[in-house]
Design brief:
The protein is built from six helices and 13 strands. By secondary structure, it is of the alpha/beta class. It has a nine-stranded mixed beta sheet with strand order 3-4-2-1-5-6-7-13-8, sandwiched between helices. Helix 4 links the parallel strand 6 and strand 7.
């Protein structure tokens, strides 16, 4: 097995589309220009896995590829399982960076809450690793990732060199365009999914579908606005989901002695 070089950045990669997906293959080649790479990704698609884990059955890990600077493992668990298992059983030392993707389909606005791609990023962040998720707004699994490679590398280099604030990770989304019109560091757009279930072939069965409604389409500081205007959306996420503004509003419910 390849011995990773001391002093060279060690980058852990996962996703929710499976280790065979085009997006993770592209991401692996890009990250291998920045450091040594270990891929631990699901053995098949886990889209919509969010932060789920596999608590009641063993998880299988298989070495798929071993070449200088790159190891690829298949994992029978979820994206979060992949990061958990890799951090304890696979990586020879603390990774300098964890990246997830490149997902086929955007993970902007509230969609990030369902995303296995982002789930892997949040798990890495909980472990204190600098982490980035990359997603592309297309479900075409034979798409061209070349228009986004420069930004993918730019963001990764920035995090490797400067790090990220404590408990903060990055969610990066790309529009499907032949040439990016720029980048936007932005917030999540407010939105919701509607008409999410449609009848299936058999009576009493339904298929998940849905349509996303952007509740603030004209807000230029959001990820959806950036994507709709041909730009990469770079959104910092924080692990602490506390609504600090609401603490004062709910003070009357507080019975704790001071």
């Amino acid at each position: 097995m390849y011995s990773f070089m001391a002093g060279k950045p060690l980058i852990l990669i996962s996703n929710d589309d499976g280790y065979q997906a085009q997006g993770i293959r592209v991401l692996t080649e890009l990250m291998s220009t920045l450091g040594d790479v270990i891929v631990v990704a699901p053995d098949s698609a886990r889209s919509g896995a969010s932060c789920c884990i596999t608590p009641f059955q063993p998880v299988r890990l298989i070495l798929i590829e071993d070449r200088p600077g790159v190891l690829v493992y298949s994992c029978s668990g979820s994206p979060v399982d992949c990061v958990k298992l890799a951090s304890e059983q696979v990586v020879p030392r603390r990774p300098d960076l964890v990246v997830s993707g490149i997902n086929h389909g955007d993970n902007a606005s509230i969609s990030l809450h369902y995303s296995g791609t982002v789930g892997a990023v949040l798990e890495a962040c909980m472990k204190g690793f600098p982490a980035i998720g990359y997603s592309l707004r297309t479900l075409d699994h034979e798409c061209d990732f070349s228009p986004y490679e420069d930004v993918i590398l730019q963001v990764a280099r920035h995090v490797l060199e400067k790090g990220l604030p404590v408990d903060t990770c990055l969610n990066v989304n790309f529009p499907q365009v032949p040439k990016l019109l720029g980048t936007s560091v932005c917030r999540m757009a407010r939105g919701r999914w509607v008409t999410e279930w449609v009848p299936a072939e058999k009576t009493g069965e339904f298929r998940l579908a849905g349509e996303f409604h952007n509740l603030e389409p004209d807000a230029p500081d959001t990820d959806y606005w950036a994507l709709d205007h041909g730009m990469a959306a770079i959104c910092p996420l924080h692990l602490d989901m506390t609504d600090y503004a609401a603490l004062e509003d709910l003070e009357s419910l507080n019975t704790r002695r001071r």
